[in-house]
Amino acid sequence: MATTADFRNGLCIEFNNELYVIVEFQHVKPGKGGAFVRTRLKNLKTGKVIPNTFNAGVKINVARVERRPFQFLYKDDNGYHFMNSNTFEQTSLEEELINAPSFLKEGQEVEITFHADTESPMYCELPAFVVLEITYSEPGLRGDTATNTLKPATLETGAVVGVPLFVETGEKIKVDTRTGAYAERVKA
């Protein structure tokens, strides 16, 4: 059992008989009345983010979760297959449990979160940024950098992201897996 004073981003709690992760929280002490905590909670099954307000001092159940390093092996009809980097055991996940499956490439390191009591995988999280090579992009016009115009570029994983006009085929770029947006060009 924990209280609202123990809230922190990433804390996994049991709320309404489901598991939620605290995405954001804010302690509020109004001039009149009791203190409370505003939160945004992400449902681990559906991925839906909901706002909720807790009164200060309310007891909550904290779910025990473990984050383990895994390496992506391959994808087939049964799902996405990963190998534990420490024990070399393999596990497969459905696409819905992965935060950005379009940016997964073979050999990439990820973290899979398991419910400690049931040993069941809850979700898979890629690093915040991944480096991928562009396999196809329309040629850009030299000197056309006055505007923030983006063109579509196909990456080695098959994902399509918008990149600036000066980025060419064969270059490596850094992509933000949380938003799916181009971040920067990577020097070779």
Essential attributes:
6-stranded antiparallel β-sheet; OB fold (Dihydrolipoamide Acetyltransferase, E2P); SH3 type barrels; 16 strands; 54% strand; 5-stranded antiparallel β-sheet; 188 residues; mainly beta
Beta strands, count: 16
CATH classification class of the largest domain: Mainly Beta
**Any idea of the CATH topology of the largest domain?**
SH3 type barrels
Q: What string gives the helices and strands in order?
A: EEEEEEEEEEEEEEEE
Could you name the ranges where pLDDT drops below 50 across 5 or more consecutive residues?
none
Mean pLDDT: 88
The rounded distance between the terminal residues' Cα atoms is 50 Å
Give the number of helices. 0
Q: Quick one: overall form?
A: flat
Radius of gyration: 21 Å
Name the CATH architecture of the largest domain. Roll
Query: Biggest sheet, in brief?
Result: 6 strands, antiparallel
How many domains, in number, for the residues?
A: 3
Describe the structure.
- This protein is mainly beta and 188 residues long.
- 0% of the residues lie in helices and 54% in strands.
- A six-stranded antiparallel beta sheet has the order 1-6-2-3-4-5, with no helix packed on it. It has a five-stranded antiparallel beta sheet with strand order 9-8-7-10-11, with no helix packed on it. It has a five-stranded antiparallel beta sheet with strand order 14-13-12-15-16, with no helix packed on it.
- The chain has no helices and 16 strands.
- It folds into three domains: 2-62, SH3 type barrels; 65-125, Nucleic acid-binding proteins (OB fold (Dihydrolipoamide Acetyltransferase, E2P), Beta Barrel); 129-186, OB fold (Dihydrolipoamide Acetyltransferase, E2P).
- A hairpin with a 7-residue loop joins β3 (18-28) and β4.
